[in-house]
Design a protein that fits this description.
The chain has 231 residues and is α+β, with helices and mostly antiparallel strands. 29% of the residues lie in helices and 26% in strands. It has 2 domains: 55 residues, no CATH class; 146 residues, no CATH class. It starts with a strand and ends with a helix.
Length: 231
């Protein structure tokens, strides 16, 4: 394990992870302060770390972006993003989050699309936040205990971002399974709703919003919130 002081960035030497050749990549990574008594612990996997302020090389950035495009396309294969847009007739849905008061120390997050509720059980704020910045499968629909499988949810919502749009393939949604959102509206509404959840949980350790109950799940939410909001 290697400890880094808060602030700044790290130069990490990767061997064959992003290309077939060894390369040294400068990652400008901000980290919260204080964390672990003012230190951030980074797991060292055969890599050397030096303090650096150099930008990420353009060639490496281009390679990473092209890999992201390939990965996103694979998520929808054999169809394309535009195929799904045509299937929906270009209809753009609106996502809305509502925080319901159960009792003074408990809140329940409800997710609505175009005024309807595609899933009536617990919503995972961690996966929801991660879906604002990444494409992939996310267990946004879950169980109040925090384990999606407990509620017989075995596939996540497939989320793919392209341009100004965000596509959902929601296998366990009631009724419609396919949704298209305006990417900015999608992100803004999730950040707004999750900010309410985070603020409520920060008020008291006695407060909870299913499935965020344990200290560990609170840490997961704080991390996802930090990453989604940029700090």
């Amino acid at each position: 394990m290697t400890a880094l002081p808060p602030g700044g960035s790290a130069r990490i030497h990767w061997s064959g992870l992003l290309s077939q050749h060894e390369s040294t990549i400068a990652l400008a990574v901000p980290w919260p302060e204080p964390t672990l008594h003012g230190m951030v612990v980074v797991r060292s996997l055969s890599m050397s770390i030096q303090q650096s302020n150099a930008p990420l090389p353009a060639e490496t950035m281009e390679h990473m972006l092209s890999r992201n495009v390939e990965r996103d396309a694979a998520l929808l294969a054999p169809r394309t993003f535009q195929d799904y847009v045509r299937l929906l007739g270009g209809k753009v849905s609106t996502l809305k989050l509502e925080l319901r008061v159960e009792n003074p120390n408990e809140r329940w997050l409800t997710l609505k699309v175009d005024g309807g509720t595609p899933y009536g059980s617990a919503i995972c704020t961690v996966n929801l936040l991660d879906s604002t910045r990444l494409s992939g499968d996310f267990h946004i629909f879950t169980c109040a205990c925090g384990h999606a499988g407990c509620n017989r949810i075995y596939r996540g919502v497939r989320v793919v971002h392209e341009g100004a749009c965000t596509l959902w393939k929601a296998y366990y949604a009631k009724g419609r399974k396919l949704f298209l959102f305006d990417r900015e509206q999608y992100r803004a509404e999730i950040l707004r709703g999750c900010t309410e959840v985070v603020d409520f949980l920060r008020e008291s350790p006695e407060n909870f919003c299913s499935p965020v109950e344990s200290p560990t799940r609170r840490k997961w939410l704080e991390r996802a919130y930090f990453q989604a909001t940029g700090g």
